[in-house]
Amino acid sequence: MQGETRNFLDTYALYEIIKGNENYSCFAGQTVYCSMINLAEFAYALLKEFPKDKVIRLLSMLEPKIIDIAKNDLIKIAEFKKQNYSKNFSCADCIGYVLAKENNLVFVTGDEAFRGFPNILFIK
Fold this sequence. Notes:
This protein has helices spanning 11-19, 36-47, 52-61, 74-83, 91-102, and strands at residues 7-9, 32-34, 65-66, 106-109, 120-122. By secondary structure, the protein is an alpha/beta fold. The protein has one domain: Rossmann fold (3-Layer(aba) Sandwich). It has a five-stranded parallel beta sheet with strand order 3-2-1-4-5. α1 (11-19) packs across α2 (36-47), α2 runs antiparallel to α3 and α4 (74-83) packs across α5 (91-102).
């Protein structure tokens, strides 16, 4: 469908979807994008709250298209992290934001540290 927004979901967004936050219900049935790094960070967050077997089930419910990190993205990611050192972004945050930008995707988050950044869909 032409004109449809393509979205990259960060760990915050993935977590809100699993929690059933109605503000994230708009992504049900949509093709969404993510990186394996974001999924690993998400799995870690889930393991702090749920047993391993439930985490495996929760992860299997998600079917994002995976965006790989290209070698030429590494410096862009490192520069973004360095430029935003005071925001204390995780590596996964930096990877996700840069990959979204480089792949013409909107970065979806509810992380307050991203408020005001370009190319963000901020949802609480």
